[in-house]
Amino acid sequence: MSGRRKSDNTEEPAEQRKARDEEVLRANRELAAYFKGKRTEREARAALKTIKAFVRDRERIDGKLRPPLPVMKSMNVDKRATSRDGSPAESHDHPSKH
């Protein structure tokens, strides 16, 4: 089984790393869509292969030299953390009943 192996050079061009990060983020979205029932198992398996390859490559790099993990530009707010009107949810401390 012959696969494409990268050299031990951990320094990759910025544009290549950016493209790889975008591909991993896309794969994460595809996998999430599968669990929501919006993608097929075949698409999920392809996304998982992309993610596994990314993790495998990161494991080969020394921890001190690893670039940060890619993050999505627009983070979704946890729906449980806000009330329906969009303001932060208040704590629901129930007063003791008399």
Low-pLDDT sequence parts: none
**Mean pLDDT, as a whole number?**
79
Element-level helix/strand string:
HH
Estimate percent helicity: 40-55%
Strand content: under 5%
Alpha carbon gyration radius: 20 Å
The biggest sheet, with number of strands, parallel, antiparallel or mixed sense and barrel status, is: none
Dominant shape? elongated
N-end to C-end Cα span:
73 Å
- Backbone structural class: mainly alpha
Oligomer: single chain
Total of DSSP H or I helical runs spanning 4+ residues: 2
Structure summary, number of beta strands? 0
Description:
This protein is mainly alpha-helical. The chain has a domain at 14-70. It has helices at 14-35, 41-60. The longest helix is centred in the first third of the chain and has 22 residues, at 14-35. It is elongated, with a radius of gyration of 20 Å. The mean pLDDT is 79.
